[in-house]
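Final paragraph of the annual report: two paired records, presented back to back.
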Amino acid sequence: MARKKKLSVGIGTAKEALDRFEATWERAARGARVTSEHRLTFETLPQLLKELSPGRWTLLEVLRTGGKMSVYALAKQLARHYKNVHTDVARLIDLGLIEKTQDGKVFVPWDVIAAELRLAA
């Protein structure tokens, strides 16, 4: 069975990201097995919710199930204005949630996008 490509989304600080990197580096230096991990971290919940709005989440779902398509075809399928979909797609590409093919089609490279939100201690 093929392994699913997973992106973990959450809230955290730059220090936490650096701590994860350092721990992975140390494991690799010891010769321990290191698995790849894909993360998208936002500093605050409001920032996460702004970037992954309900409209953008629907866009991701439609694109994931529909496969590679042009932004125009995606806008038609979503029944949204092209300009707004183009703006959302550009931002989601910047965040690494969407990728673009050489012929300009866009797609979601992730099988799973998992979110973990912890309450402050």
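The closing record of the year follows.
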Amino acid sequence: MKKIRILIADDHPIVREGLATILGLQEDMQVVGEARDGEEACQLYDQLSPDILLLDLRMPKRDGLQVVTELMSRTPRPRIIVLTTSEKSEDLRRSLTAGVKGYLVKGAEPRQLWDTIREVFAGKSSLPHDVAAKLADSMAHAQLSRRELQVLEQMAVGRSNKEIGQILYLSEYTVKSHVKAILKKLEAVGRTEAIAIACERGLVKLD
């Protein structure tokens, strides 16, 4: 029986150990490496050429999306499954747009993890029903442009239109137009509600 060779990338040792134990219960699965950060994930991927990369989104040095973007330039294209704590619709949408084939939230049952790995290994995409529903909801929302996201990020830290314009090299009038478009797309009545909606969806992150 050909074993599915799996690389785990997660910055928490306990998570890596737990995943390795769970995957080791299956005769057709073999953990070939463990990465502690995004940089090491890319290095080990090139060294080991795993069949599946099991990837966390929140990691030091390089986050999961940066890892996906870099590895998608490889031939053949990698089969990547995101396993994360994030249920933000924007994280899900960005991951799938970048080329991820499976998306699981930590806390999923071992059976769900095994099934997802086998499906992605077989060349299919695999999303649990609740994740697929969240994706559908995300796609129903109007998407913000790159510039609108930049303006939104500045709004989220409390900067005025004038300050945003100075930082992004835009006129105050142009910033005002972007803010108006952002409020419309997020269906928000003001800046405070827009920022709250953006945080809930994962469009911006407030530390």
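The mean pLDDT is 88. This concludes the annual technical report; the extension proposal builds directly on these records.
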